[in-house]
Design goal:
Blueprint: H1 5-26, H2 34-57, H3 63-78, H4 83-104
Helix pairs in contact: 3-4
Length: 105
């Protein structure tokens, strides 16, 4: 069985194009429903969270150290720190937690 990568790319391009064009072609008037508007507003954030959260938990040697880093990032973010500061706190917390867990386990 021969696998042609160009066919795969063409199918992916077609599906991506249809996903983006169909709503424009099917919905002619402005959406006024507050429920649908709020749903569509939060879809990108929900998708980003759904893709990012598993990567956070399984990016380190121990899930516990990843959870500690995530907690440190949440605390720094809720204290209105900058993105770089949040990332530094998360990385530092994961680094320290990894070192402690290597000594314990």
């Amino acid at each position: 069985m021969s696998h042609n990568v160009y066919v795969y790319i063409l199918v992916m391009a077609g599906v991506t194009y249809l996903i983006r064009v169909l709503p424009l072609a099917l919905i002619k008037r402005e959406i006024t429903s507050p429920f649908i508007l709020s749903f569509l507003y939060y879809v990108p954030y929900a998708c980003l969270a759904a893709m990012t959260f598993p990567a956070i938990l399984f990016s380190t040697s121990y899930v516990a150290s990843a959870a500690i880093g995530f907690g440190a990032a949440l605390i720094a973010a809720f204290r209105n720190k900058s993105l770089v500061t949040v990332a530094v706190f998360a990385c530092g917390a994961v680094f320290i937690a990894e070192r402690v867990m290597e000594m314990v386990f």
